[in-house]
Amino acid sequence: VQLQASGGGLVQAGGSLRLNCAASGRTFSNYHMGWFRQAPGKERELVAAITWSGRNTYYADSVKGRFTISRDNTQNTLSLQLNGLKPEDTALYYCAASRLVRIGSQREEYDYWGQGTLVTVSS
Known about the structure:
There is one protein chain. The termini are far apart. The protein is 0% helix and 50% strand. The mean pLDDT is 96. Strands 2, 4, 5, 6, 9, 10 and 11 form a 7-stranded mixed sheet that branches. Strands 1-3-8-7 form a 4-stranded antiparallel sheet, with no helix packed on it. The protein is globular and about 40 Å long. The chain has strands at 2-6, 9-12, 17-24, 32-38, 45-50, 57-59, 67-72, 77-82, 91-98, 112-113, 117-122. By secondary structure, the chain is an all-beta fold.
């Protein structure tokens, strides 16, 4: 599956952004999906994930209550709503697809990746 992320930008602390990921090539609904981020000098970390059906989600503690992951299997899209942004949310954000039967939390558990979209939060 090919993934194309978009929606990043520069925003002030407290602001909002919506990231989108368009999928093509294979059946999108076959995959659990995740959003990762990587800040300069840091490891890539899972921010949020969602099962193939959309029924179950996972959030990193650092973004719970601020970020919301969703998907539309009819449109082959994945989204991440970012509210209450903080400077520490500044990073490249990646969407990724996993063929595992459960939601994975590790980078190695995802098989397909989109290019990153940059989110910059100013203080």
